[in-house]
Amino acid sequence: MTVHGDSMSGNCYKVQLVLNMLGVEHRWQEMSILAGDTQTSAFLVKNASGKIPLIELDDGHVLSESNAIMGYLAAGSSLIPSDNFINAKMYQWMFFEQYSHEPYIAVARFIQLYLGLPEERLVEYQSLHVKGHKALSVMDAELAAQPFLCGDQFTLADIALFAYTHVAHQGGFELGHYPNIRQWLARITLQAGFIAMRSKA
């Protein structure tokens, strides 16, 4: 399969982690959001929303949205709990990531890291921190009593939330106030197949 993504994007990094942790053969097509690679006519034919990550299977099928891609790649693996309730908890955290975490932490990071914190977006940037810290507090409380978000099992939920949490400082979020999150981040780096996110050139 071909995977289209920007290695510095947390959403794309999630997919990279699953691919490497499960040893899935693939071809990585590096793209630049800022250079407009996702808005070319050739790419828009594959994904009309103009978003990455995107996987393109050998049979021509394409799939977008990072959490959907992770679910497809990890089907039948230990990254998806077999217990129905724990499985539902995994999805609960993945929805949390998309609606209560990523819109604040990832966007603040984009404004600071990708755009260089332009003055016209400072008010927006500062407002993102209130709900971003709320999300981090929820995670830290959950991780006080267990090693991973769904208990003892490392799942897709951990990968989904690791992606932007471990680089939250690049959006102005200080993780020093969240000791349980910091310990959780360290545990994830010890998982088989872990690879680091590419740093900014």
The CATH architecture of the largest domain is Up-down Bundle
- Unreliably modeled segments: none
H/E element string? EHEHEEHHHHH
Shape: globular
> Widest sheet: strand order?
2-1-3-4
Average pLDDT level? 95
How many helices? The count is 7
Binned, the helix content reads 40-55%
Ends distance: 27 Å
Biggest beta sheet attributes: 4 strands, mixed
- CATH topology type of the largest domain: Glutathione S-transferase Yfyf (Class Pi), Chain A, domain 2
**Portion in strands:** 5-15%
* Computed CA radius of gyration, to the nearest angstrom: 17 Å
Q: What's the total count of β strands?
A: 4
Can you tell me the CATH class of the largest domain?
A: Mainly Alpha
Q: Tell me the structural class.
A: alpha+beta
Number of domain modules:
2
Domain GST C-terminal: 83-201
GO molecular function: transferase activity
InterPro entries: Glutathione-S-Trfase_C-like, Glutathione-S-Trfase_C_sf, Glutathione_S-Trfase, Glutathione_S-Trfase_N, GST_C, Thioredoxin-like_sf
Protein name: Glutathione S-transferase family protein
What does this entry look like structurally?
This protein is α+β, with helices and mostly antiparallel strands and 201 residues long. The protein contains seven helices and four strands. The chain folds into two domains: 2-73, Glutaredoxin (3-Layer(aba) Sandwich); 84-189, Glutathione S-transferase Yfyf (Class Pi), Chain A, domain 2 (Up-down Bundle), CATH 1.20.1050. The protein is 50% helix and 7% strand. A hairpin with a 5-residue loop joins strand 3 and strand 4. Helix 1 (10-22) packs across helix 6. The mean pLDDT is 95. Residues 1-81 form the GST N-terminal domain. InterPro entries: Glutathione-S-Trfase_C-like (IPR010987), Glutathione-S-Trfase_C_sf (IPR036282), Glutathione_S-Trfase (IPR040079), Glutathione_S-Trfase_N (IPR004045), GST_C (IPR004046), Thioredoxin-like_sf (IPR036249).
